UniProtKB/TrEMBL annotation:
UniProt entry tagged with the keyword Glycoprotein: no
UniProt protein name: GNAT family N-acetyltransferase
Keyword field: Acyltransferase, Transferase
Classification lineage: Bacteria, Bacillati, Bacillota, Bacilli, Bacillales
Source species, domain of life: Bacteria
Pfam families to which the protein is assigned, alphabetical: Acetyltransf_1
EC number annotated for this UniProt entry: 2.3.1.-
Keyword Transport: no
Domain N-acetyltransferase stretches: 139-275
Length: 275
């Protein structure tokens, strides 16, 4: 019998769901990473699980006001997927958006009411275990410091604009400062100036995600992003992570090609629906 259980206690939820999420660590890097970064001040809109005869099938987590994360679903029949989607529709009061494995999330949105949603982004999750294309020798990877703030805060703003997640200049500065202070932002430097940035985020037991990869227009098509991601991926492997991962926009074939040349291999397609 299928059952949806909502949680009020964060520690209980975390204890219950992490063993399940870690069965597919890279595919579930988003909920795992978020669970590892929440604080007492964090807003949590939804914590829930869907089980079948005590076997955990799906984890639902919402910390973003516009989307609920769906964990990687197990193999299931279309009929069971429909039943799970109906359970979500009937027992989750407010569904502003969904992000998860493409086929299952498509089915869920169809059941909930597709006319109320639009596709915000078609994504693909990639995993790297070994760098195949090394960074160019005409530059170097370095940690971004507060001295770079005037440049990278603008890059964060432009990245969010291109991702259709627009924020204000003040918010982009706050975001950049937080990332820099946590030593998570790196840049590719050539001829004494930084030309591309990339960040590390959501560390799990053996994986870390690379995100916020951005190159301003004037620096594109010069191989800078490839070198930056390649060098940063290798640095993370050298630090002891078994894998690195990243999300790509499937509507950007250039970036997908670049990442595959570096050594990233696709492991799951993901889709983001919003109202």
């Amino acid at each position: 019998m299928l059952k949806l259980r909502k949680y009020d206690d964060y520690e209980e939820f975390k204890s219950d769901v992490l063993p399940h999420l870690y069965k597919h660590e890279v595919e579930n890097n988003l909920p795992i990473g978020i669970l590892g970064s929440l604080t007492e001040e964090s807003t949590i809109y939804l914590m829930a699980t869907i089980t079948r005869d005590e076997e955990m099938l799906i984890v639902l987590l919402q910390t973003h006001p516009k989307q609920i994360i769906i964990s990687r679903p197990p193999e299931m029949s279309d009929e069971e997927a429909v039943e799970i989607a109906k359970l979500i529709r009937d027992q989750v009061e407010n569904i502003p958006g969904l992000i998860g494995e493409r086929d299952f999330t498509d089915k869920a949105v169809n059941i909930i009411d597709k006319s109320n949603f639009f596709v915000q982004m078609n994504q693909r999750i990639y995993e790297l275990t070994k760098v195949k294309k090394e960074a160019d020798t005409n530059g170097k990877l370095r940690l971004v410091t507060m001295e770079d703030l005037s440049v990278v805060k603008q890059w964060v703003y432009l990245f969010c604009e291109e991702a259709d997640e627009k924020i204000s200049l003040e918010e982009s500065e706050e975001k950049a400062i937080a990332i820099i202070k946590n030593e998570r932002m790196y840049a590719w430097e050539t001829d004494g100036r930084i030309v591309t940035m990339a960040c590390i985020s959501r560390p799990t037991r053996t994986n870390i995600c690379i995100s916020l990869v951005f190159t301003p227009l004037e620096n594109r098509k010069k191989g800078f992003a490839s070198s930056c991601v390649s060098a940063l991926s290798q640095l993370m492997l050298d630090k002891g992570y078994k894998t690195t991962s990243l999300y790509t926009d499937l509507d950007n074939p250039t970036s997908n090609k670049i990442y595959m040349e570096i050594g990233y291999e696709p492991i799951m397609d993901s889709i983001l629906y919003r109202k």
